[in-house]
Write a sequence for this structure.
């Protein structure tokens, strides 16, 4: 038997063509994605990401509006403040700031932060209260004026809750 000749590979790249139905499906999918992006950009919010914008990147803050920084503190019987934000209780500040309105409606949720702190720091002094404090930095033309104001927006008395 004589050896069979090996076929030569094609000279150029192999062309694959979409069928008309495949092309139509891709155009429809592209049109839907573009419509969602347009609607999200016009009416969307952070919850709609990736079809809605991140407001912190897509809007501009008023240069004369105060900057507000929220922190959560526990108070000991001696009046010492113990930091409960910044990961001390397994909850980052940004996550907590998104829940401030909920905490205002249900201040007893602050008791959960005190419990988490007590579990993570068993030798620390007992907390008698938990506060959500907002510090306002006044601005003028985007520059700090030096006026700083602390306000307790929510307070939960742990001793009263345990009676």
């Amino acid at each position: 038997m004589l050896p069979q000749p090996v076929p030569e590979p094609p000279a150029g790249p192999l062309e694959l063509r979409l069928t008309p139905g495949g092309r139509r499906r891709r155009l429809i999918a592209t049109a839907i994605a573009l419509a969602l992006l347009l609607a999200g950009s016009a009416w969307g919010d952070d919850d709609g990401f990736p079809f809605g914008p991140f407001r912190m990147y897509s809007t501009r803050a008023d240069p004369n509006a105060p900057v507000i920084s929220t922190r959560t503190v526990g108070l000991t019987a001696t009046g010492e403040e113990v930091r409960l934000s910044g990961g001390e209780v397994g909850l980052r500040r940004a996550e907590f700031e998104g829940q401030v309105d909920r905490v205002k409606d249900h201040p007893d949720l602050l008791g959960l932060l005190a419990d988490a702190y007590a579990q993570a720091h068993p030798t620390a002094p007992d907390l008698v209260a938990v506060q959500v404090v907002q510090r306002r930095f006044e601005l003028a033309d985007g520059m700090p004026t030096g006026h700083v104001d602390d306000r307790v927006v929510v307070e939960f008395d742990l001793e009263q809750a345990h009676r």
In short: The radius of gyration is 29 Å.
